[in-house]
Fold each of these.
Amino acid sequence: MKKKIIQFCFPALLITTIILNSCSSSEKLSDKSGVQLWGENCSRCHSVPSPSAYSDYRWETIGTHMRIRANLTHYEETKIIEFLKTANEE
Ligand code: HEC
């Protein structure tokens, strides 16, 4: 009887821990600012693009394109694009 409890509790505890950990790490991710996300993600495949390189309109399009490439969430993309649009002085 005791063995059965251990057999059930251990995997259940493990799964709970994994789920809780993944939740807290995604919370941390969304705490990051647009500048941070831009610096960390947009330099992974090519040199990090300067905000002034594109107009607001073009950043919108590029944002969608790069969100898919970089596997970002919609929320992260919005933060990055908001930053790029305020920093490009257009
Ligand atoms: C997984 C790799 C990858 C990541 C991460 C990535 N890019 Fe790119 N990016 C590419 C590739 C490949 C191209 C060129 C081909 C294309 O446009 O699909 C490109 C092209 C671009 C261009 C040029 C578009 C044009 O019209 O010439 C810009 C600007 C750009 N990326 C911005 C960004 C920004 C901003 C981010 C961060 C949100 C980002 N990229 C993250 C792979 C990536």
Amino acid sequence: MKRFFPEEVYNPITNAGAGLSALSFGLIIFLTILDFLSPESKPYMGILTFIILPGFLLVGVAFILFGIIRERGRLKKGIIRKSKLILINLNDPKQRKFLISISLGMVLLLFFSAFGTFKAYEYTETDEFCGEVCHKVMEPEYTAYLDSPHSRVGCVKCHIGEGTGWYVKSKISGAYQVYSVLLTKYSTPIPTPVKELRPAEGTCEQCHSPSYFLSEKKTNHTYYLSDEKNTKSELSMLVKIGGGDNQLQEPNGIHWHISQDNKISYIYSDDRRLVIPWVKQITKDGKEIIYRSTEVQFDEKKFNPENLRTMDCIDCHNRPSHIYHQPDKMVNLHLAQRKMDESLPFIKSISVHALEQKYSNKPTALDSIEITVDQFYKYNYPEIYNTKLNSIKTSIGYIKKIYSRNYFPYMNADWKHFPDNISHVYTPGCFRCHDGKHVSEDGKVISKDCNSCHLIIKQTTNGGLTSSSLDGLEFEHPVDLGESVEFLMCTDCHSKN
Ligand code: HEC
Ligand code: HEC
Ligand code: HEC
Ligand code: HEC
Ligand code: HEC
Ligand code: HEC
């Protein structure tokens, strides 16, 4: 009997391989069409179509080749059928037809696997792949991201950047992450800082020029104390965000750290970069100034070279997108915006208290918040409970919202586990260096002067007294601490709650 393919193709291994490839190929085509037609995209289907099935396809092809080679060996040895050497004769129409169909098949296969690979590449760059595939694990980052100034900036713009080098690097670490998710080997919370994050030059600075930071930015704050009256105070300040090295201004201000005129590097001695015992500044004219902490014991001859960093955007803006807000801040904001009712006694205190309890999971947390606040008013203020039940319920609704947005007990993700470095009140932030205790050999101290980074231009104190000045006012701490806050670390009291 004459056969269409050469003799060595007819063996069980090759047949099995061909079956597998054909099946995977058919499925890929089918799912791709389905994907095109379906109105919403489905992360899991994407993984199947563009990652798992092409894998099977390749295994099938490997089987085909292996079967052919093995069969050829057997035929050669004359084990089963009589051996025949292949003789390509293009004058034979059968052979010609065979060759043409094989080549056509190969071209098609190559085309589709190239297309498939391209789709896979594209797919692994989408936000849904990053944010939803490992749903539970990434839920905190994804939720915070969607509510951030960068919600329209793709994950890859900050996490990978342009070019294949970092693509491969991040995919290798990504592959490990997929593995750790599948085997539930990931740690909670996800360890931060991210060691293999690409330097800001290739990410942030692709959109934000480090040269253009001009003048000051005004911010307003309203505070409420934890007393019965929720005593209110207010503050407006100009944050000196200048410092870009352009021709339009003096190079002074916060963004001075990243201007081309100087270079700041530092060594951290803990794994969260919160303890910084050594800072080096190289000035415009190449002078080196080293500031050493007078507080932290540190042997600068024996340190892990990985802990030496050159300062870039991420050393201050470590939470440009995954911001877990501090509860005082959020409750103050909701009270100031009149979403929550500031006339409810102890509303500030009870809200922060309810938010900061340790809960094992989200449903328990939301139930407990409801019960805690409701019972508090029911038993302590029955009259108010009757007359203002509506505003109590509304407030409870907002407290739950604050919780859902900022606390993720399953992953241990919240403001304490992911400290924001942009300020210094609730987390060390700027005061990691600007604590007034980093001194150079000739006695220069990294400044802790309250007016060096911002100017308080208007302040309304607890008593309702308002003062304002464009030269800067001295900060009046809302409760009397018995000594000047200038000499204290805000976090000593404010990071604990
Ligand atoms: C504007 C830039 C930006 C965008 C957009 C962004 N990230 Fe991040 N992300 C960061 C930075 C910066 C860090 C590192 C924080 C650190 O090292 O302290 C980080 C850290 C993380 C971490 C480690 C845990 C943590 O919170 O520190 C995860 C996980 C993560 N990002 C996931 C995502 C996902 C998923 C998306 C898209 C849905 C995304 N990121 C979008 C900037 C970004
Ligand atoms: C793809 C472009 C893009 C990238 C990459 C990017 N940003 Fe942004 N960023 C923006 C845009 C656009 C805004 C303005 C958003 C708005 O006002 O709604 C912004 C706003 C900001 C703000 C002001 C936020 C606020 O609360 O007003 C900061 C700070 C910032 N980015 C820092 C960073 C840092 C740090 C990185 C790198 C980790 C980064 N950005 C990466 C586009 C980008
Ligand atoms: C020394 C710490 C520090 C470094 C380094 C730093 N920033 Fe900032 N940046 C700040 C502070 C503080 C603010 C004001 C914070 C605020 O109001 O939210 C700010 C504000 C901004 C804003 C908002 C400006 C506006 O007009 O509202 C952008 C955008 C920004 N930074 C981007 C960057 C980028 C990009 C880099 C790296 C090239 C960078 N920053 C490096 C501390 C820093
Ligand atoms: C890694 C250490 C480090 C961190 C963190 C840091 N700084 Fe600095 N900063 C320095 C050093 C060093 C100087 C130069 C000494 C000085 O002027 O006090 C400096 C100087 C400054 C200056 C004066 C710049 C000028 O115009 O001369 C400002 C403003 C400033 N920092 C703001 C901030 C703010 C705001 C933060 C937090 C968001 C911050 N720094 C975090 C190391 C740091
Ligand atoms: C190295 C720079 C730096 C120094 C020094 C500094 N601050 Fe700040 N401070 C900041 C930054 C940055 C913020 C955050 C600004 C923002 O949210 O826009 C901030 C925020 C604040 C806030 C508002 C906090 C909030 O979140 O509501 C107060 C109050 C404050 N600082 C008081 C002080 C006092 C008092 C001193 C002197 C002991 C001081 N600061 C010294 C950089 C500094
Ligand atoms: C010795 C402890 C201590 C130190 C240090 C301290 N505070 Fe406070 N602070 C308190 C207490 C107590 C309250 C009242 C809290 C309350 O009623 O909820 C408070 C309240 C505040 C409030 C208003 C309440 C709110 O909503 O957060 C602000 C703002 C504040 N402090 C800023 C600062 C700043 C800025 C620093 C550092 C320069 C600082 N504090 C250092 C103990 C301290």
